[in-house]
Structures are given as structure tokens and as C-alpha cells.
Amino acid sequence: AEGLLIYQPELVPGLMQAPDYLRALTRTHYADESEAERERRVQQRIQRQALITRKNSPARVHAVIGEAALRRVVGGPKAMAAQLRHLADLGTRDNISVQILPFTAGAPLGIGVGQFTVLDFGVDRAGRPVEPPLVHTAGLTGDLYLESPSDLRRYDHAHECLRRCALDVQQSRQQLRQLAKEYLG
């Protein structure tokens, strides 16, 4: 994907998870696996993050992250402080925008909405889509991929509304750095 619109109300988005945060989630989610297998999963996820951090043609990301994700302690205070600093640092990149949706924003869409990512695969030299855009939502029993134009419009509109209600990029970065200090506090 060339562009991603991410909304994650409960956890830090996978492409933005710092190693210790990711390890804590992996330990819980894959509790039945060996430590070596869990570490393999962590390393795969870290390698996948190159999609947004590589020097040549990194994907554009606009993430809206719910305040609950910042306050839910994953991996302990030290891991959370590192995670929040990592998010703030990612948000300084030209291709990445991170906005925090504070609790005070209420329910901007009028309903509870789970995590979703809108993926845009760009266009070829003739201006045709390389692949049709799609929406990905993850669930406990599997993932859902939506491709219909009406579904895409609804999720684009939802993300736009969430962005408008979220703190701006600068305010979000300041809040991330402040919360990181509080975790070490």
C-alpha cells in the first residue's frame, strides 16, 4: 500500500508498535507458543514496519489513535513511555501523521467504531489504480476486507470525521511526550 488511513481506538497500530510493547502483546496473544516463536513474530512485525520508515518511497500514514490506547498499560510503565516517545518520533516524519482522539471528543461518529485501516495502492503511469483500495478491519475470529465503493466512502468519511475531532498533529505530539514522562514519573 502507498497510503494508509488508520483508526485504532484501543491499542497502538501494529505498524507503529515499539518492540517492548509488541512483545507484551505477543506474549499475551500467543501465550501457548514458545518464546522463540513469539520473538520470531515480533521480528516479522518490526521488519514490516519498514513500509513506513524506509528511505525510498515510504507509505503515507495518517493515524488517529484513541486516548484509551495511550492510557492502557501494555508491558509496564517503561514500555509505555518508550511506546509513546516512539509514536511522537514517528509523527515527525514527513510521511506520517499521528493524531490523538481525546476522551473529551465524545463519540464523533455517534456510534462506537472498532479499528480499521483504509489501504490505497496508488496508480500506475496511466493513472489507473494498481489495485482497488480496500478497508481492513480485524476481529477476534478473523479479518474482514471491504472493497465496495460505498463501504470505502463510509470509512473515508469516518476517518475524516475522526481527524477533525482529534487533537492536531502538534498537540498530539506534545500529549504523547507529556504522557511518556508521566509513565516514568
Tertiary shape: globular
The computed structural class is alpha/beta
Instruction: Output mean pLDDT.
Output: 96
Strand percentage: 15-25%
Largest sheet: 6 strands, mixed
Helix content: 40-55%
Q: How large is the radius of gyration?
A: 17 Å
Output the strand order for the largest sheet. 3-2-1-4-5-6
Provide a brief overview of the structure:
The protein is of the alpha/beta class and 185 residues long. It contains seven helices and six strands. The protein has a six-stranded mixed sheet, sandwiched between helices.
Q: What do you see in this structure?
A:
This protein is of the alpha/beta class. The chain has seven helices and six strands; from the N terminus they run E-H-H-H-E-H-H-E-E-E-E-H-H. Strands 3-2-1-4-5-6 form a six-stranded mixed beta sheet, with helices on both faces. Helix 1 crosses helix 2. It starts with a strand and ends with a helix. The relative contact order is 0.19.
